[in-house]
Write a structure and sequence with these properties.
The complex is a heterodimer of chains A (206) and B (242).
Chain A (H helix, E strand, L loop, with lengths): L19 H5 L26 E6 L1 E2 L9 E6 L23 E5 L7 E6 L4 E2 L5 E2 L2 E8 L6 E7 L3 H6 L9 H4 L3 E2 L1 E4 L2 E5 L2 E2 L9 E2 L1
Parallel strand pairs in A: 1-12, 2-13, 9-10
Antiparallel strand pairs in A: 1-5, 3-4, 3-8, 6-7, 8-9, 11-12
Chain B lengths: L35 E2 L4 H4 L31 E10 L9 E5 L25 E5 L5 E7 L4 E3 L5 E3 L2 E6 L8 E7 L17 H6 L1 E4 L10 E4 L2 E3 L15
Parallel strand pairs in B: 2-11, 2-12, 9-10
Antiparallel strand pairs in B: 2-5, 3-4, 3-8, 6-7, 8-9, 10-11
The chains are: A mainly beta (206), B mainly beta (242).
The structure holds fe (iii) ion.
Chain lengths: 206, 242
């Protein structure tokens, strides 16, 4: 026998279920209770850097897009600083770096309008290529899935990224890289997330 | 740079695995490859912060936040309260807690919910609040009803409230569901059956709290949430190098 460690144990996850939008994006379901839904404005009006759109679908193992999912993003500003009191550096007034989007009830498309983040200093002084941290919940997902989106126009930075390089199977790294196109003058990154099957997206235990 | 400690590794044995055939929807929505283990960087140790400007004072009162003036939602009036703590038993202050639930008949205000139970015109079904400096939160609502769902033909969800919590780092992000002590449907629920650990189910079961009950008014239920803890030792954590 020994002394008991007095840590608590993390509360277990349970699926967000089919009605997650009622709680986290009520206006999207037509429920007008709050004066605003949270997470609609990621960067704010003062953020420096390139204004971009990120969009995609979340696709299940039957090749069908989820139409009842919710996705959250956490990102640094264009200078690679997170809007967090203990991350050294300043972010622009109104830059939150966090957002949430619901998949369209018909098409399954989700979308964020934001600014492109800068490289973030990683462990051991190794910079990480610009990336978005994403978290996905839905009916049928028992515990939220963490992944990252990297930018298709950052080949050199991506090639040196310590996290992408952790993925032993080089062919799977590209599941995290979104190609860039320009649509009506707006840079758009297209990022389909595959939960299962061919091209399954890399998810992280973070 | 970052003073923020890394998080303790998530004990996955407490959480449902991705693939749980007992809960049929998980079968096509579960990754088949192993998760790639990632040590924390600033992308993981930081997370969004929220303030009073994000919410309004009545947002945590589901009895009235959707009701017409002078009306309240129908059902057993409840107070749901507790603390958000981390694994180090420290309170998590100023963190956003959001809940959603069915009405007293077991019906959600959602186009996809086609259950026969009636909608309550005075009940929306969502609320949000920030924990105070001691990690304490409180909601007022009605006790949700049980409802059927298509898993097996005769699958029922016990009364439950969905809860989303943030913490101070993005990897603490948690969505869970709380159940009510004594509910006979708990042992029959396929979604609860995804939990591999009986003690995890107990931890998800709110306790009847007669001390906090408001006599002649509202029954109280106590539910504490535990988020992942951070490392902090006399020696610096080693995120920045060896
Ligand atoms: Fe539910």
């Amino acid at each position: 026998m020994s002394q008991k460690l007095d840590y608590l144990r993390e509360t277990a996850s349970q699926t967000a279920g089919p009605y997650v939008h009622i709680g986290l994006a009520p206006l999207a379901t037509g429920i007008e209770i709050f004066d605003h839904d949270l997470g609609l404005d990621i960067a704010g009006p003062n953020a420096k850097g390139e204004r971009i759109r990120v969009e995609g679908r979340i696709i299940d193992g039957m090749d069908t897009p989820l139409r009842d999912a919710l996705i959250e993003v956490w990102q640094a500003n264009a200078a690679g600083i997170y809007a967090h009191p203990e991350h050294e550096g300043e972010v622009e007034e109104g830059f939150r770096g966090w957002g949430r989007s619901v998949t369209d009830f018909q098409s399954g498309e989700w979308r964020f309008d934001t600014v492109k983040p800068g490289a973030v200093m990683g462990r051991h002084g190794r910079p990480m290529a610009p990336h978005l941290n994403l978290w996905i919940v839905a009916r049928g997902i028992n515990i939220g899935l963490h992944t990252r989106m990297y930018f298709g126009d950052e080949d050199a930075a991506n090639a040196d990224d310590p996290v992408l390089n952790l993925i032993e199977w080089e062919g799977r790294r590209k599941t995290l890289v979104a190609p860039r196109e320009v649509r009506d003058g707006m840079p758009v990154y297209r990022f389909d997330i595959r939960l299962q099957g061919e091209g399954e997206t890399v998810f992280f235990d973070v | 740079m970052a003073k923020l400690g890394e998080f303790y590794q998530r004990d996955r044995s407490l959480h449902p695995p991705a693939l749980t055939p007992v809960y049929k929807t998980s079968v096509a929505r579960s990754p088949r490859f192993s998760l790639i283990s990632l040590e924390n960087s600033a992308s993981e140790t930081t997370g969004p912060t929220f303030g009073q400007g994000d919410i309004a004072p009545g947002d945590n009162d589901l009895l009235t936040n959707y009701a017409a003036d002078g009306e309240t939602a129908i059902g057993e009036r409840i107070l749901l309260h507790g603390r958000v703590l981390d694994e180090n038993r420290r309170p998590v202050p100023n963190t956003l807690v959001e809940i959603w639930q069915a009405n007293a008949g077991g019906r959600y205000r959602h186009v996809k919910d086609t259950y026969f139970a009636a909608l309550d015109p005075n009940f929306g079904g969502c609320g949000r609040t920030l924990t105070d400096e001691n990690g304490y939160y409180c909601f007022r609502s009605i006790k949700p009803g049980a409802y059927p769902f298509r898993n097996y033909v005769n699958s029922w969800r016990p009364a439950h409230i969905h809860m989303s919590v943030f913490g101070s780092g993005f990897v603490q992000r948690l969505i869970t569901q709380l159940y009510f002590e004594g509910d006979p449907l708990i042992p029959h629920c396929p979604i609860i059956a995804t939990l591999p650990d009986k003690s995890a189910v107990e931890q998800l079961t709110a306790a009847l709290d007669l001390n906090a009950t408001i006599p002649l008014d509202t029954i109280a239920w106590k539910f504490d949430v535990v988020l992942r803890g951070r490392r902090s030792t006399m020696f610096e954590n080693r995120m920045e190098g060896n």
